[in-house]
Amino acid sequence: MRIVFDKEYDIPNGLYQVKVRELEFDEELQNVLNGIDPAVKIEENDVPLSELKERVFELQSRDEAEKLMGEIRGALVEALSGIIARFKEAQSFNGSVSYEIDFNEL
């Protein structure tokens, strides 16, 4: 997985802006996420993964902006780790089970 941020200081407004420009998943993770749009918790808000690249976060200080980028990264890891764990559990559980009952057991 790769995440690329654009960050900019808005001189007229005195705000630090952070935006996720690129969110790239390897093929295996992309297959796991196919049809799933997990929510990522950022600044106490649940943001759907599909909307993450559309958001521009405006912050008051450089430290807040740097902290937010770390928070987004951590939130992605947390959200995707949970999905991957459930996917692996499904892979290990899914399938068919066949039981044969002997006539003598009846």
Q: What would your notes on this structure say?
A:
There is one protein chain. The chain has about 110 residues and is of the alpha+beta class. A hairpin with a 2-residue loop joins β3 and β4 (about 45-50). Strands 1-2-5 form a three-stranded antiparallel β-sheet, covered by helices on one side. A two-stranded antiparallel sheet has the order 3-4. The protein is rod-shaped and about 85 Å long. The mean pLDDT is about 90. It has two helices and five strands; from the N terminus they run ββαβββα. It has helices at about 25-35, 60-95; strands at about 1-10, 15-25, 40, 45-50, 55-60.
Instruction: Provide the spatial order of strands within the biggest beta sheet.
Output: 1-2-5
Main pleated-sheet profile:
3 strands, antiparallel
Strand content: 25-35%
Tell me, briefly, the overall form: rod-shaped
Structural class: alpha+beta
Proportion of residues in helical segments: 25-40%
* Average pLDDT for all residues: 90
Order of helices and strands: EEHEEEH
What is the terminal separation in angstroms? 55 Å
Total of helices:
2
Number of strands: 5
Low-pLDDT ranges: none
Radius of gyration, Cα only, in angstroms?
Answer: 21 Å
Keywords:
alpha+beta; three-stranded antiparallel sheet; 2 helices
Topology, element by element:
Layout: E1 2-10, E2 15-24, H1 27-33, E3 39-42, E4 45-48, E5 56-59, H2 62-93
Antiparallel strand pairs: 1-2, 2-5, 3-4
Give the structure's gist in a few sentences:
This protein is an alpha+beta fold and 106 residues long.
